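Appendix B. One record, verbatim.
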Amino acid sequence: DASLVPRLEEIRANADRSIRQALKPLMDLLKNRAKLTNPNSDVRRSAATDLGSSGNPSAIPWLDAARANEPNKWVRYTMEESVALIRLASDDPSIKAAAADKLGELRSQNAVPLMKQLVAAGAGTEATESQKTVAKAAGAAIDRIETWGVWSNAIETFFRGISLSSILLIMSLGLAIVFGLMGVINMAHGELMMVGAYATFVTQ
C-alpha cells in the first residue's frame, strides 16, 4: 500500500545503513505504483519505465490495471513494454518466449541487450532445449526490432535530406530573385542547386 511510504521514510530516517538500503527498493516500488495514477502523463510513463527496470513481478498486476484505464497511447505502450520486460526475466521458458515475441511485436529497443543475453545462453554447448527455444524466440524478436530500426532510420534520413536540400533551394531561389532584380548574372544559382541535389542524393 502506497500509504506506507511516510511510515517507511520515518523508519529509514532513524535507521542504520543496512536498513536504509533494504527499505529503498520497497519505497521506490510503492512510490512508482502511486505515480501510475498521476495526472501528468510524463510522470506515469516514467513510473512505468522504473517498474519495468525493477524486474519485480509484483508490479505486473499494477501495470496491467493502470494500462486498462490509460488514455495516452505512449504511456500504454511503455506499460505494456515494462510488463514484457519483467516477464522476460521469468524462470518459466514459455513465459520468456512469449515475452520475447511481445517485445518483438512492440519493436522495443530497450529489450535488445537482454534478448541478446538469452540468445548467447541458448547458443552454448551446454544449453538445454528450453534455453534453445527461448533463444530462438529472442533471435526472431531481435531481427524484427533491427529490421524496424533500419526502416525507421532510412525514413528519418530521407526527411533530413529533404529538409537540408530545401534550405539550400530557398537560398538559391532568394539569390535568383535578388540578382534578377539587380540585373546581375547569377553565377551562384546553378552551384547551389547542384549542392542541394548532391546533398539529397548523398543523404539518401
